[in-house]
Amino acid sequence: MNNELTSVSLFMDSESSLETFAAKMAKNSNLDLVIFLHGNLGAGKTTFARGFLRGCGYQGLVKSPTYTLVEPYLLDGGKNVYHFDLYRLVDGEELEFAGVRDYFDDQSVSLIEWPEKAEGYLPEPDVICRLAYQGQGRQIDVIAMTTRGNEAMLRLLAD
Ligand SMILES: Nc1ncnc2c1ncn2[C@@H]1O[C@H](COP(=O)(O)OP(=O)(O)O)[C@@H](O)[C@H]1O
Ligand SMILES: [Mg+2]
Questions:
Q1: What domains are defined for the chain?
Q2: Could you tell which of 13, 15, 19, 130 is best to mutate to test the pocket of ligand 1, judged by most ligand atoms within 8 Å of the CB?
Q3: pLDDT tens column, 74-91
Q4: Of the candidates 127, 101, 103, 140, the residue with the CA atom closest to the CA atom of residue 26
Q5: Mean pLDDT of 100-123
Q6: Which of 81, 141, 90 is nearest to 112 (CA)?
Q7: Could you give the CA distance from residue 140 to residue 43 in angstroms, rounded to a whole number?
Q8: Alpha-carbon distance 6 to 155, whole Å?
Q9: Is any atom of ligand 1 closer than 6 Å to the C-beta of 138?
Q10: Are the C-beta atoms of 126 and 50 separated by less than 8 Å?
Q11: How far apart are CA 28 and CA 25, in angstroms?
């Protein structure tokens, strides 16, 4: 099954090229994805989230919600984007208490930094992005994990 799912590895020479790529992913999705963002501090996870939100038409400030765990964005049209930063999560149960289970539905996107901190408390991702330092730029590996994620990636690559 896995070999039918798309993956791509790209070099991003600047912050703006990563933002543009993420915006393009947003535009080619139906805004119903769970996206895991892996990578060390400074690798570009929040930059990806910012670009994705720009692609959704959101022009305001996007910061990592390090202390609040999640920042909700209500888009024109009624869909939601939830941007998680789980770096400081101690126990996945905190997420249960915060009531985040309600966030994972067909009317929303979840962009999740540090998903490994909440293993067992998150849904399966539709797409996994792995970001890594490479010289002055960043390497991004994008891997579809579900049919829905795969369809979005195929549209993105054809765009
Ligand atoms: N190609 C690139 N893509 C993204 N960020 C880059 C890139 N090159 C340099 N940077 C810098 O790296 C930092 C990435 O920060 P951020 O997106 O907050 O990372 P994270 O959320 O993974 O900790 C920013 O300061 C940005 O200017
Ligand atoms: Mg961040």
A1: 2-158 (3.40.50.300)
A2: 15
A3: 999 999 999 999 999 999
A4: 127
A5: 93
A6: 81
A7: 9
A8: 11
A9: yes
A10: no
A11: 5
**Mean pLDDT across the stretch 4-18?**
97
45-55 vs 15-27: helix axis angle to the nearest 10?
50
Handedness of CA 73, 71, 21, 154 (dihedral sign): negative
Residue 34 tokens, joined: 């769970």
N- to C-terminal Cα distance for the chain? Answer: 25
Q: In what order do the strands lie in the sheet with 34-38?
A: 7-12, 137-144, 127-134, 34-38, 108-113, 80-85, 70-74
Confirm or reject: Cβ of 41 under 6 Å from ligand 1: yes
Amino acid type, 127:
V
